[in-house]
């Protein structure tokens, strides 16, 4: 009896403490005089954000309309300042990047400061992120992109054949799916040297596994909610999931993706003839196998590894006096083996899903706006004489194609959910004192659909002409930010843009895309990490 009373009182006391602590944290925006929706003590505003499918970006937009360009909401107890004020965004993402260098923690992720495993360019922060980004950046120079240009072209040859077959059949096709397979083939071969022919072999197990990763983001309630409600357990829950994933790769497909990349790494280390100048090799060249990481940002190396780390041609050379390396030494040129695996997974996923979605959305808009499609056809017919021999430099001489690219990503800021930063040390912006730990989320839909910036034509209309240089050059630098902003913007921006343009230019030369009975009047969007057309993009392909 006594034990029961004791345990019940203890439990109630614990709950009361939790309740009061949360209520106090959720007072933050009121104390700062910042408006926003009333938070529930337990879930904050999560239910409004995620209760219906697809409505995270729409909900932010709704709140912006109600509370203005700067307002606060809560993910459980975690404060998020949602902004669409362009000067504010510039201050956070560029001018004060040093203070706002971390991305908002993902629902499930390891401790970015202490974890030995599971850290990559997207979820890291501080000096660790700088080190990873410094090594990765050179993979996306023009010279590197020119190297993979022929590979992309060969994959587009296959796409054109498949589209020709579809046009002969006179059936409606889901072009979004076709683009997904194409960009997957490009990424698998260009980044990892994995021979891939998913465009023909649609049941390829590696492709299906990668697709399952996105489906899981949308479906898995455990992944989605628990760490938001109780962020204190986020890192522990991640460790449990990692353990489960280690033994059951089918339960968490991300681990199967990592496993596949580890296979390629092993093969290359056993047989150096398999090495090729790709993204993976670039990372492998910086790999230190014998580093030990003690969780306090201290890394020590064997003598031979130390040589490798210090003598690479790095952007920021480490003084010889600092031979005892630690991770907080700025930018030493090395990667831990686990960082290479998890980072590769991120590239594989980020690299194919975003670009294919952008292509699908562009084709949807062109099919439903035939006069714009005609304008693009005219430009391509005039300036692109032989589409098969298209060159890298020709891509920049197609101005209307560039406008179509920009307008598509203006209408659909597909990567908007990750355009956020955490305040690492208290800071004041526009007179608002932002305490450390507050997250800044950009409401990109509101930024990209703001009638003041994008009018007089209705911002919901597809109007590539908005981007004619004489109009666009006078806009605020933060008015169009589909790839984020500042030093931590999208590292694959140029690859994504090149791939988009070469694919669209070549298929436009050959085909017309036509609305049909199965084409949605208004595209239903879903959020699977990125914004994506829920039911694909279904149109008819007509040979020209
Ligand atoms: C149309 C295509 C793409 C779009 C719209 C897009 C969008 C974005 C956005 C909005 C961000 C967040 C930037 C920020 O927080 O400021 C981002 C980050 C990132 N993207 Fe992309 N992306 C695209 C293509 C790619 C490709 C092809 C790759 C890789 C091959 C890639 C890899 C990454 C990585 C690794 C990051 C994290 C960068 C960091 O934290 O330092 N993306 N992307």
UniProtKB/TrEMBL annotation:
It comes from the Eukaryota. Its cofactor is heme. One of its GO terms (molecular function) is oxidoreductase activity, acting on paired donors, with incorporation or reduction of molecular oxygen. SUPFAM superfamilies: Cytochrome P450 (SSF48264). Heme binds at residue 490. Keywords: Heme, Iron, Metal-binding, Monooxygenase, Oxidoreductase. InterPro entries: Cyt_P450, Cyt_P450_CS, Cyt_P450_E_grp-I, Cyt_P450_sf, Cytochrome_P450_3A. Cytochromes P450 are a group of heme-thiolate monooxygenases. They oxidize a variety of structurally unrelated compounds, including steroids, fatty acids, and xenobiotics. Belongs to the cytochrome P450 family. This is Cytochrome P450. It comes from Capitella teleta (Polychaete worm).
């Amino acid at each position: 009896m006594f034990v029961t009373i004791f345990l019940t009182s203890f439990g109630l006391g614990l709950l009361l403490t939790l309740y009061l602590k949360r209520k106090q944290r959720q007072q933050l925006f009121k104390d700062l005089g910042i408006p926003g929706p009333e938070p529930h003590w337990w879930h904050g505003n999560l239910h409004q954000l995620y209760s219906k499918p697809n409505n995270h970006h729409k909900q932010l937009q709704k709140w912006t309309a109600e509370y203005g360009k700067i307002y606060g909401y809560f993910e459980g107890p975690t404060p998020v300042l949602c902004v669409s004020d362009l000067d504010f965004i510039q201050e956070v993402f560029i001018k004060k990047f040093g203070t706002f260098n971390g991305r908002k923690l993902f629902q499930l992720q390891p401790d970015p400061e202490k974890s030995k495993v599971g850290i990559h360019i997207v979820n890291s922060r501080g000096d660790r992120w700088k080190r990873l980004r410094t090594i990765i950046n050179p993979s996306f120079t023009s010279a590197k992109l020119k190297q993979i240009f022929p590979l992309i072209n060969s994959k587009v040859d296959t796409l054109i054949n498949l589209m020709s077959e579809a046009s002969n059949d006179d059936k409606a096709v889901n072009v979004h799916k076709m683009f997904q397979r194409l960009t997957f083939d490009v990424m698998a071969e260009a980044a990892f040297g994995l021979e891939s022919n998913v465009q023909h072999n649609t049941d390829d197990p590696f492709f299906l596994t990668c697709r399952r990763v996105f489906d899981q983001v949308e479906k898995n309630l455990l992944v989605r909610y628990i760490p938001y409600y109780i962020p204190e357990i986020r890192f522990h829950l991640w460790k449990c999931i990692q353990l489960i994933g280690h033994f059951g790769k089918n339960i968490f497909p991300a681990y199967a993706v990592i496993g596949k990349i580890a296979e390629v790494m092993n093969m290359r280390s056993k047989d150096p003839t398999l090495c090729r100048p790709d993204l993976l090799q670039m990372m492998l060249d910086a790999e230190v196998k014998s580093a030990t990481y003690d969780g306090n940002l201290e890394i020590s190396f064997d003598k031979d590894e130390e040589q490798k780390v210090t003598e690479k041609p790095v952007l920021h050379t480490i003084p010889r006096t600092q031979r005892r390396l630690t991770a907080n030494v700025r930018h030493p040129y090395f990667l831990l083996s686990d960082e290479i695996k998890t980072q590769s997974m991120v590239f594989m996923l980020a690299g194919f899903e975003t670009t294919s979605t952008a292509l699908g959305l562009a084709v949807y808009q062109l099919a439903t706006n035939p006069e714009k499609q005609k304008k693009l056809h005219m430009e391509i017919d005039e300036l692109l004489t032989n589409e098969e021999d298209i060159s890298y430099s020709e891509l920049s001489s197609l101005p209307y194609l560039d406008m179509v690219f920009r307008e598509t990503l203006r209408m659909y800021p597909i990567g908007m959910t990750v355009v956020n930063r955490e305040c690492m040390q208290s800071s004041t912006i526009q007179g608002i004192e932002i305490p450390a730990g507050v997250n800044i989320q950009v409401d990109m839909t509101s930024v990209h659909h703001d009638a003041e910036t994008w009018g007089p034509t209705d911002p919901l209309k597809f109007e590539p002409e908005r981007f004619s240089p004489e109009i666009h050059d006078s806009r605020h630098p933060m008015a169009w930010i589909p790839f984020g902003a500042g030093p931590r913007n999208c590292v694959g921006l140029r690859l994504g843009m090149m791939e988009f343009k070469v694919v669209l230019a070549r298929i436009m030369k050959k085909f017309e895309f036509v609305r049909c009975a199965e084409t949605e009047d208004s595209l239903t969007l879903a959020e699977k990490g990125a914004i994506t057309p829920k039911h694909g993009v279904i149109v008819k392909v007509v040979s020209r």
